[in-house]
Design goal:
single chain; alpha/beta; six-stranded parallel beta sheet; globular
């Protein structure tokens, strides 16, 4: 047997085992996932992949007077996991008996066909999602030409975890892309057609800015925004390598806070395992710190009430800037990992160092930025921030631009009150 033949056999066995494990995983999820045995309810607007009551309330406010429905992610059918899942059995059975399922093209996944079948059964005119980097969503317009589609960008995007699954295809289309900034809108338009409108973060826009209470505090607060996640997927990078940036920055921040009489606090990221997240930071920081567990709305109040905020490449850091807060961005993960898409302001293009940011793991740069932010007056800070804020992340307090853009989609659809 030749070496090439031996390698081919080993690859075939490995691939067969991988497919067997994946099939078993999907069957297990299919069995374990909660199920609904009644037909999908008829609705005007269908939320694709529900992300909780807060987003449901937001969507309802944009479509007042219309019937809102929800299609949950069918875990056993797709390859992604979402916090809330449910399989509609009548839809699943109907899908298996449809010609579309048996004649599906290579670019059409089972999850996509299930979703399109659910849309037809619900008789929805508009489909909305907060999962903007879900590839299948951009394919719905071709399969269900009667609907209008809208997505809200729900986080900062990168190449590896966000755009790597997208392939430029003129058939991909989203009627309205509500994105953080113009640069991200242009990035999405490389992969699909439609209209991109920069509105920033819809969650951020819907939470009023809180007045600071620092005047009654005896010690100022420096808040670090966590990006810790449980059950880390090491497909692309190990946990240790990815979170090396946190260790470098927090060791510096703990020293800087002591020298400058600031109280160090951590704004948590995990909603499912706050205790493990706190333990992770306790293993890095050897001075006292406060830990604020993640709360979808309260986290905005934490950043508003802090005197200084430091983030790496989190969405919350950019949202904090939009709210006018003194937020330093130490986007050093780009340098440590060699990933250009983790540089400050990506996919926009900026210098490596700026008034409130750096891409370099350099304590002198950290000190320069924090010394400036801690001494600058509010007027000086807003003057600098206004030079960059609109390009980094738009801000639409009260969601007026968002409502106007959605109203145009409603007018172009079959919806009528």
């Amino acid at each position: 047997m030749t070496k090439e033949s031996s390698l081919t056999i080993k690859w075939s066995i490995t691939e067969a085992l991988r497919r067997l494990v994946e099939t078993y995983r999907r069957c297990y999820l299919l069995i374990q996932t909660p199920k609904t045995w009644v037909l999908p309810s008829h609705c005007d607007v269908l939320i694709i992949y529900d992300t909780g009551p807060f987003f449901y309330g937001l969507i309802s406010s944009f479509f007042e007077g219309y019937e809102i429905g929800v299609m949950y992610k069918p875990l056993g059918i797709g390859s992604c996991s979402y916090p809330i899942a449910n399989i509609n059995i009548p839809c699943l059975i109907g899908m298996f008996f449809s010609l579309k399922y048996w004649k599906k093209k290579s670019t059409e996944s089972i999850s996509l066909i299930y979703t399109s079948h659910y849309i037809r059964m619900s008789k929805a005119s508009i489909a909305v999602t907060l999962i903007d980097n879900e590839v299948n969503f951009s394919k719905l317009s071709k399969i269900c030409p009667q609907i209008r589609t809208i997505f809200f960008q729900n986080g900062v995007r990168d190449e590896v975890y966000s755009f790597s699954n997208f392939i430029p295809d003129p058939a991909n289309h989203t009627d309205l892309m509500l994105v953080f900034n113009k640069a991200t809108g242009r990035k999405y338009l490389n992969y699909m057609t439609g209209k991109a409108v920069a509105i920033g973060s819809v969650r951020n826009n819907s939470v009023p800015v809180k007045t600071k209470t620092s005047s009654i505090r005896t010690r100022r607060i420096l808040l670090f925004i966590s990006q810790w996640r449980p059950n880390w997927d090491e497909t692309y990078i190990t946990f240790e390598r990815f979170y090396e940036a946190e260790k470098i920055i927090l060791l510096f921040l703990s020293k800087w806070c002591e020298l400058n009489n600031y109280r160090l606090a951590i704004c948590g990221a995990s909603r499912s395992d706050a205790q493990s997240e706190k333990s992770f930071f306790s293993s890095i920081i050897f001075t006292e710190f406060e830990f604020y567990p993640n709360s979808q709305l309260r986290s905005y109040l934490y950043v508003d009430d802090s005197d200084l905020i430091v983030s790496i490449d989190s969405s919350m850091g950019y949202e904090s800037l939009a709210r006018g807060n003194k937020n330093a961005i130490f986007s050093i993960r780009s340098e440590l990992l060699g990933w250009d898409d983790y540089k400050f302001g990506w996919p926009g293009s900026y210098e490596s160092n700026g008034p409130f940011w750096t891409n370099h793991a350099d304590e002198q740069q950290f000190k320069r930025i924090l010394d400036y932010l801690s001494s600058a007056s509010d007027a000086e800070w807003l003057q600098i921030l206004n030079e960059y804020a609109a390009d980094l992340i738009s801000y639409d307090p009260g969601c007026f631009r968002t409502k106007a853009a959605i109203e145009k989609i409603i007018e172009s659809s079959s919806l009528r009150l």
